[in-house]
Here is the input.
Amino acid sequence: MTTSEDQLLDQAVKVASDAGADLTGYTFAPVNGATQATVWKGTSPMEASADVALRLTPKPVELITRIAAAIECVGDVVRPRTLAVGQLPDGDRWWTVHLCAWIGTGAPARPDMRLLGQHLARLHLALAESSLDVTDRRLTFERSPGPAPDHDLPSWDIARHVWRDRVHAWVSLQSRQDLLQPIHGDLHWANVVATSTGFGFIDFDKLAFAPPVFDLAKLIATGMFSIGERAQFHAGKVTELLQGYESLRPLTDIERAALEGAVILLNAETARLGALYNIEGYRTRACAIGDWWITRCQRARHDPLAVRSGRRAESQADDKGLRQMTLWSDEAGQPAGRG
Here is the structure.
């Protein structure tokens, strides 16, 4: 028999207190938005005491402790400071109790995209300069199972296939190996919070050793498309985000090409999760974005997401052989075959 949420909260507070946290007088309220974790915001009756976030996560206590220690070295960026870590049994399972300082004032209502780009660049620069070793936590882009052979391919699968199989290999050959370093790893919009100085980042549980553009791609894939009767791409916001980012950390041409691919692959991952957890909204969103990308490629095949324009004219990039391979036949403008 599992423990009720109120009982879990009481037990989690005790675990955090036993680990050295002073939570006397704090009141806790549940916070929405977490996927695997249960989160409460703790408020103290004393103005001098800071608010806290109390998390219950199924991830191992060793991992949470390791990541908490790792991000302590990150300066110039607002991120949670860990106050206590412990373990809580719940029937035949274990929870990791993670108490950290509460940061931010909520989700940014009308974010300054240039400023957000600068904050993310500062995070990447700080992680790159740290002695943090997370080389055992690498991202992979393995195929998820596709549709049955007797079913029509959904647009998200076509988009993924076209980019991954016909462009990603080319990008890998050009770059020899992607620029790898510690990154946030799960930078969707729920993990970006507004602060008095701009932005902060939370939930580093998926800290990874991967190309920095993956974090940028997740922001674009999860927040730069509006889904109505069809998908609408907010190209202006993406441009502002990249301008802010590149004011501190310029992207290479290879990184810009990889950024586009990561957006497409993350969209395919949204569809996979929608099928796995039976979330129709995920599948609908992925198909809408897939349709948009396929249509867009027919009109702007060399830079469909408008992320490669960058600092130089496209013609200059073409002179260096960095132009995207043709994805469509000249005759019909149809997707290239699967072979």
Observations:
- Residues 5-101 form a domain with the Phosphorylase Kinase; domain 1 fold (CATH 3.30.200).
- The mean pLDDT is 82.
- The longest strand covers residues 82-90.
